Amino acid sequence: MAAPQSLASRIVAAFVLMAAVVAGLFALIVVNAINTVETRLVSDAMNRQLDFIIEESDEGRFPALGPGLDLYVAPVGASASLPAWLAPLREGLHEIENDDEAYHVQVRDRDGKRYVLVLDQEDFERRETMLFVAVAAGVVISILAAALLGRALARTVISPVVRLSGQVQHRDQLLPLAPPLAAEYAEDEVGKLASAFDETLGSLREALEREQLFTSDVSHELRTPLMVIASSCELLEAQGLTPQQRAQVERVGRACAEMQELVETFLGLARAPQERGTKLAGTSLAAVATEQLHRWQPEAAQRGLALDLVSESVDDGIYPAPLLRAVMTNLVRNAIHYTDEGFVRVVLRDGGFSVLDSGAGIPEAERALVFRPFARGGSTRGDGIGIGLSLVQRICDRQGWRITLAPREGCGCEFRVELRSA
C-alpha cells in the first residue's frame, strides 16, 4: 500500500507533471518542425544545386562543388556504374547511411542521364544535435522551475491549512475555554473550514460534557442505594440466619460490592484526561485471577465446563483492582457464555494474561468488530447487549494495556492482554 502524500507534495507533483506534459509536447513539436524544415530546406538547396550543375554541364562547363558535396553521373538504367549503396535509389530526396555516416542524396534523371548529388550531413547533424540538446535542456529547466515554483506556492497556499490542521489536532481545542479558530483566518475557503471546525468542536465539547455529567450523576445517585443494600446485608448477617440464608446474604453483599466497584470504574472512564488523578486500589494479577476462578466456578460447572487457572510465570506487578477485575470478569464471562463444551482457561504470565476457550470461535470477518459497542457474536445468547468487550477495550486504552484476539489451533479463541508496554 502506497504511503499517503502530503498536500504540499501533491501540489508540487501537479506542477511538475503539468510542466513535463507541456514541455514534452512543445519539444515534440519543435523536433517535428526541425525535421520537416530540414527536409524542405535540404531538398530545395540540393535541387537548386542540381539545376545549376545541369545548366553548366549543358554549356560544356563543370562547376566546382562545395564542401561536403559529391556528384555522380551515369546513364539512366546503368546503375552498375554507380556506387553500390547509391544504385538502388529512385528519383527524389533520400536520407541514408553508409559506413556509419549519414548523407542526403538527391537523384534526378535528365536527358538519359542520372544525376546523383550526395551531401555529407556531418555539419548539419552537429547543428541538429545542438538544437536537440537545447530542447532537452529546456524541458529539464522547465520541470525544475515548475518544481521550485510549486514548492514556493505550496508553502504559501497551504500554510493556513497546515496551521489549522495543527490547531484541530491539539487536544486543548476540546476544552470549554479553547479560543475559536475562525477568528484567526480570512473569510475565504480556509476561514469557512475553520468555522465548520468550530461548530464541530463545539458539538463535541457539549457531547463530552453531557456524557461526563450523566455518568457523574448516575454514579452519585447509585452510591446511596448501594450503601443501603450493603448496610442491610451487614445487619442481616448479624441476625441468627441459617447457613443457606447466610450464603444468600453474602452473595447479595458481594454483588453490591462489585456494583460499587463498577460505579467507580465507569466514573473513572468518564473523567476527562486531566481529571484522572484519582488513585484506585492496587492488586496483583494472581489475586484477581484466583478471585475470578472462585466466582465463576459454579456457573462453569453448571454448564459442564472445566474452568481452570494456569500460571506460566510469576507476575509481581500491582494494577488498579477495579479496572483489572472488570477486564478479566468480562473476558471470563464471555468465554463461559459462548462455550458449549470443553474448557475455559485463564493463563497467567509475567506482564499479562490470556483467556482461552474451546468454543466455536469467532469468524475472521467478525474479529475486527468484536470490540465495538453493541457488537454481538453470530450466535446471540441471553440478554447481553454487546458492551462487555467494548468496555474492556476502553479500559485497556485508558491504562495503556494491549488486548488482542487470535483463533486457537483447532477451535475456540484466545484473548490476550498485555499489561505492560513493550
UniProtKB/TrEMBL annotation:
Under InterPro entries, the record lists:
HAMP_dom, HATPase_C_sf, HATPase_dom, His_kinase_dom, HisK_dim/P_dom, HisK_dim/P_sf, Sig_transdc_His_kin-like_C, TCS_sensor_his_kinase
SUPFAM superfamilies (UniProt xref): ATPase domain of HSP90 chaperone/DNA topoisomerase II/histidine kinase (SSF55874), Homodimeric domain of signal transducing histidine kinase (SSF47384)
The protein's predominant localisation is membrane
Give the transmembrane ranges.
12-34, 129-149
Keywords in alphabetical order, please: Kinase, Membrane, Phosphoprotein, Transferase, Transmembrane, Transmembrane helix, Two-component regulatory system
Gene3D superfamilies per record: 1.10.287.130, 6.10.340.10, Histidine kinase-like ATPase, C-terminal domain (3.30.565.10)
The answer to whether the entry has keyword Transmembrane helix is yes
Tell me where on the tree of life, at the top rank, the source sits: Bacteria
Q: Where in the cell is it found?
A: Membrane
Q: Which SMART domains match?
A: HAMP, HATPase_c, HisKA
EC numbers, comma separated:
2.7.13.3
Q: Which residues form the Histidine kinase domain?
A: 217-422
Recorded protein name is histidine kinase
Q: Which organism is it from?
A: Aromatoleum evansii (Azoarcus evansii)
